[in-house]
Amino acid sequence: MKAPPERLYGRARGHRLRARQELLLQVTLPRLRFPAELAANPLAAFAPRPAECWLEVGFGGGEHALAQAAAHPEAGLIACEVFVNGLCSLLSRLVPEVAEATAALPGNLRVWDADARTLIRALPPACLDRLFLLFPDPWPKARHAKRRFVHPATLAEVARVLKPGAEWRIASDDPTYQAWVVEVLAAQDAFAAAPPVARRPAGWPPTRYEVKALAAGRTPLYWSLRRR
Ligand SMILES: C[S@@+](CC[C@H](N)C(=O)[O-])C[C@H]1O[C@@H](n2cnc3c(N)ncnc32)[C@H](O)[C@@H]1O
């Protein structure tokens, strides 16, 4: 099986940005950005220092990341996204207009606006208590399988940074990706994986992508893996 390429995502910028979005990127994002130099000690990026460190890969519009950060002040959440319009969406929900430079920001939320795998590689072993991968880009063509985040090579990197007993949540509505997750999980022993469920478990805030999938009649599956 081929190793994953350096780029896992399709496009990093969609339609043209409005003035407010430019301001959010220039003024608010630096206030919230996870500093790369703290990768060796991620809890130090939060104030106050949280009891746990969580990470979300590909937060999209940020609905899930914001809901988790609000519901769990005990956890510091690093929310990763490469898509600029997604970054703007999270930032615009956080700060009111004209307060981009001054609005109070949650002390337990930090944004990584680059490939999540780069950060994962820089983190120390066994530092994360929870990882979220919700509706990853499916890359349904077989020749693109190496771009899928769930991949034997990435699985080893994720296993390295999760603490024993830590949870990895995965959701997907794409039948090809669902079958792929089952196949990849069957071939590894770093994670204990119960069969997926077809109803979103309690404590999993919905995402925009999920709402679209349900409206289109697709059936998401939800996995909760445990690091052995
Ligand atoms: C299909 S969307 C789902 C977004 C969101 N989780 C939801 O459920 O609404 C997948 C997102 O993952 C992001 N993404 C893909 N690969 C990534 C990576 N390696 N690091 C960070 N973000 C990534 C994409 O930019 C995209 O916004």
Give structural notes:
This protein is of the alpha/beta class. It has one domain: Vaccinia Virus protein VP39 (Rossmann fold, 3-Layer(aba) Sandwich), CATH 3.40.50. Helix content is 31%, strand content 19%. Helix 3 links the parallel strand 2 and strand 3. The longest helix is centred in the first third of the chain and has 14 residues.
CATH superfamily: Vaccinia Virus protein VP39
**Morphology:** globular
Low-confidence stretches: none
Mean pLDDT: 94
Q: Give the class from helix and strand content and strand pairing.
A: alpha/beta
Outline:
The protein is of the alpha/beta class and 228 residues long.
What secondary-structure arrangement, pairings included, does this model have?
Elements: H1 19-32, E1 52-57, H2 63-71, E2 75-80, H3 84-94, E3 109-112, H4 116-122, E4 128-134, H5 152-161, E5 162-172, H6 175-186, E6 191-193, H7 208-215, E7 221-227
Parallel strand pairs: 1-2, 1-4, 2-3, 4-5
Antiparallel strand pairs: 5-7, 6-7
This protein binds S-adenosylmethionine (SAM).
